[in-house]
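How it folds:
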Amino acid sequence: MKGSFPKWRVNGNENLVKLCTNFEGNPQAIDLLTQMMHLEPSKRITVKGALAHPFFAEFNSKMDEEMEAPHYF
């Protein structure tokens, strides 16, 4: 067993921005990914919290509209 482990410096969102080029210019996407990637489960965003995240606001508003619209069968 090793008594001391190296301490790595965390670059915060810098690495995510470099790796996730599709989310460039979308801070909400980077924020959601950051919350999903916490190693400690108690700090990680829940599924319910993730679905309510502002990143999905447009999708959620469309779903709300569909749920309110009358359905004819």
